[in-house]
Amino acid sequence: MSAGPAETAFPQRYVxxxxxxxxxxxxxxxxxxxxxVSEERVAALGGRSIAxxxxxxxxxxxxxxxxxxxxxxxxxVLTARRDGHVDPLILPAFxxxxxGGIVEHIK
Length: 107
Known about the structure:
Strand content: 25-35%
Number of helices: 4
Largest sheet: 4 strands, antiparallel
Distance between the termini: 17 Å
Number of strands: 4
Shape: globular
Order of helices and strands: EHHEEHEH
Oligomer: single chain
């Protein structure tokens, strides 16, 4: 039986669309080291980074996360924003199985 809309499957997934800030652009040469720091922070919160891409267009980076909770994701995002290198847009993501479980409960 599929999970109802009130039930949550763990880990939760998120997509982050990020734009470099002026500080991030000014310190671009340090971005590889900062990426490693980011991965360590995610792991310390019980999550993992599934994918990371530099992209062209209105955003500079796309990252896909698994995190144990919204609270863990929020803690990570606030820490990243405080650092001031990127301005992220966080989107909760639903895989095909989860999406199917949600849709089948819609009458």
